[in-house]
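Same chain as my last thread, 328 residues:
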Amino acid sequence: MHSATGNDFDIPLLKQLNLDNTWKSPDAMVAMSNVQKHAESLECYACHASWVPQCYGCHVHVDYGPDKDGKPKHDTDWIASGSKRNPDGSTAESPLGVKGIQSPGKVHETRAYLRWEEPVLGINGEGRVTPLMPGCQIVYTVKARDGRTVALDEVALSYDEQKELGQERTPLAIDMAPVQPHSAQRKARTCESCHNNPKAMGYGISGGVYQLRYTEDIVEDLIDQKTGKVIPTNYQIQIPKIEALDFDWSTIIKDEQQVQTVGTHWPLSRALTKEMRDGMKRTGLCMGCHREMTNAELWSKVSEKGTLTDEQHIELMNKALKAYAGSK
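reply #2:
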């Protein structure tokens, strides 16, 4: 490979590594040679991207009410400003100190939470498995000119996506987008980080068991522990509910249906298919052996003193597999 800076790089080909058996590790050989579906279906960076920026939940607040001086609130109209070009190529908002073309409504936005670690996986516009990152997961609140809240934490629905997926549930129009995060490194993700990770498969962080109270108004006050009701007559809602959001922002599959859009710019983009997810699920593999630990007679024959390293454990399972094959 020849870089723009003039440097030349010798890039080893997977095919040649396989022919010469010069793999750096058994993991690499298994992932990129023995498991044919990986080579057929995965982008290289699906495993080699070391991290992906994940900014979950975009809470957009648009206020059309009066400013402190009684005048209607305005803000920069980025589309109109960027569309108006000057002879030198600059746009209406380019010069320092100017606000560009203004339009009614003051806009500000906040996020729900940030993550940087291993991302959700999905399918990109070329039909290959790729990392996903939150695109525009927009929840919007709108205040009218008289100060009334006319929309509070509303989420749009994507009926087009529902029709395309052919499913009963309508996905929310909050998006997880396929991405090439440009954080590739030589060391790839471990097998377990995908095959034993519900987040990677699209089921949400820790399987979607957290952040499940978005459908409720959150009040930090004196609460009746039996009924869950607020005790004081006058109280303030700290976190208004998002009625449509009955799952965590990191969840794209709930009850085996896609619950938010995935890369709406390309027809092939979507969550991992059920066939892929079923093929990835490896939770419970440990139980095949370790459920026998209470059987003292059996366990004494197969266990060794101390704790096995990962390498020793892999070799032990390999011996068990070969012994089973020999019994056939």
